[in-house]
Amino acid sequence: MLIVEDNVADARLQQFALGAQVFDCAVTWVDSIDGAVDHFNDRIERTGGGDTDVVMLDGQVGSEDASELLIYMKLDPLLKSIPVIVMTGSQDPRRHQGWIAQGAESVMSKCFEIEDLESGLSALGVYARDIP
After folding, report:
1. pLDDT band at 110 (very low <50, low <70, confident <90, very high)
2. How many domains does the chain have?
3. Per the domain annotation, does 131 fall within a domain?
C-alpha cells in the first residue's frame, strides 16, 4: 500500500488506522507526487511490474492536485489497474466526480476521528495482499 500525503500528521493517522484494522501489508509513505512516481519507477525496475496493492492519495499534495498522479497512473499499463482512494477535505462534488472520472476507485473525506477513518479503511481489505 502506498500513502501519498504531504501532511505528516495525516499520514501517521492513516498508518495507525491501517494497523488498527490489522492489515498485514507493507505500507510506504511518500510526501509528494514526484515521490510517488519515483516509488513506482523503483518498483517497476526491481520487480518488473507494479506490486502496489492500493494507493491512498491526498486530494491536494503540496501545490499539486491528485489528478496529476491519477492521470500518470492510468496512462501506464503497469499501474492503471491499481486502485486509488483519494482522501480529501474538499466538499466540492465536482472535484470528487473529476477524480472518479480520472480513475480513482473512490473518494473519502478526510476524517480526524480515528474511529471514522478505521471504519472507512476497513473496505480496503479486499485490495490488500498479505506480506509473504
Report:
1. confident
2. 1
3. no
